[in-house]
C-alpha cells in the first residue's frame, strides 16, 4: 500500500508543500517563510484572540500569599 501524499499550502506565501520528511520547514516551504511568520508573531501582528484584556494574573497580589 502506498502512503497517502498530503500537501498543504505554506501559510506565508501559499506555495504547495508536501507534508513529510522531505519538507523540514513544514508547514512552511522554506526557512525564510518560517522566519517571516515568527517575526509577525514577535511583532504581535498575529495573536490568538482572547475573551478580554483581563487574565488570571491581573488579580494576583504578593500580599495575598
Automatic annotation (TrEMBL):
Keywords: Metal-binding, Zinc
Residues bound to Zn(2+): 10, 13, 29, 33
Cofactor-binding details, from the entry: Binds 1 zinc ion.
Cofactor(s) it depends on: Zn(2+)
One Pfam family of this chain: YacG
Record flagged with keyword Metal-binding: yes
Function: Inhibits all the catalytic activities of DNA gyrase by preventing its interaction with DNA. Acts by binding directly to the C-terminal domain of GyrB, which probably disrupts DNA binding by the gyrase.
NCBIfam families, sorted: PRK00418.1
Family from the record: Belongs to the DNA gyrase inhibitor YacG family.
Subunit field text: Interacts with GyrB.
Protein name listed in UniProt: DNA gyrase inhibitor YacG
Organism for this UniProt entry: Rahnella inusitata
Name of the coding gene: yacG
Amino acid at each position: 500500500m502506498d502512503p497517502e501524499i498530503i500537501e498543504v499550502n505554506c501559510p506565508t506565501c501559499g506555495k504547495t508543500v508536501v507534508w513529510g520528511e522531505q519538507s523540514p520547514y513544514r508547514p512552511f516551504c522554506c526557512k525564510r517563510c518560517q522566519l517571516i511568520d515568527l517575526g509577525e508573531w514577535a511583532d504581535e501582528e498575529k495573536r490568538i484572540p482572547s475573551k478580554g484584556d483581563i487574565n488570571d494574573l491581573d488579580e494576583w497580589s504578593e500580599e495575598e500569599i
